[in-house]
Amino acid sequence: LERTLSIIKPDATRRNLTGKINAKFEDAGLRIIAQKRIHLSPAQAGKFYEVHKDRPFYGELVEFMASEPVVVQVLEGENAIQKNRDVMGATNPANADAGTIRKDFALSVGENSVHGSDAPETAAEEIAFFFSGLELVG
Ligand code: GTP
Ligand code: MG
Question: What PROSITE patterns does UniProt report for this protein, alphabetically (predicted)?
Fold first, then answer.
């Protein structure tokens, strides 16, 4: 089984959408094997999204991710990385398929409700960024 790092972003925690988003993960066969609510500092958010530091939206992204609490979680399942990205939908909710998290809940390309790892290497790095091995209960 594969594991991926998911973040329920501030626009979604603010609107009490954690349960509805988790239902979509579980309905797709993804098991939530670790989960915690945290409030990232700007420095922590900046480090997490360092890969995007040269993109024009980096400052806005970091400010948003540190604005209010997030729920970080590890999802486990068959092809969890791709399966999660399918459930999330396209980055811009205007382009997301019906039934996806971003189609149903996202507010904009920036405030798009969820993050998901995009490859096995980034998934491993991102899981280790937030969780110790003891916290992963598969
Ligand atoms: P993540 O799972 O969050 O990594 O989303 P993604 O892989 O679908 O998108 P990408 O990695 O390209 O961008 C990371 C995040 O930056 C997106 O989820 C958005 O929150 C934000 N982002 C991307 N493009 C834009 C943009 O044009 N404007 C703003 N404000 N934010 C953007
Ligand atoms: Mg990404």
Answer: NDPK (PS00469), NDPK_LIKE (PS51374)
Q: How far is CA 3 from the centre of its chain?
A: 13
Locate the ligand 1 atom nearest the alpha carbon of residue 116 and give its number.
2
Are 119 and 113 in contact, with CB atoms under 8 Å apart? no
User: 113 and 106 in contact (C-beta within 8 Å)?
Assistant: yes
Contacts of residue 103, Cβ cutoff 8 Å, sequence gap at least 6:
89, 93, 96, 97
9-58 pLDDT, tens digit per residue, is: 999 999 999 999 999 999 999 999 999 999 999 999 999 999 999 999 99
Q: How many CB atoms lie within 10 A of CB 76?
A: 18
Q: Characterise 5 by phi-psi region: left (phi > 0), alpha (psi -120 to 50), beta (else).
A: beta
15: which 2 tokens? 């609107």
Q: Which residues are annotated as a binding site for ATP?
A: 9, 57, 85, 91, 102, 112
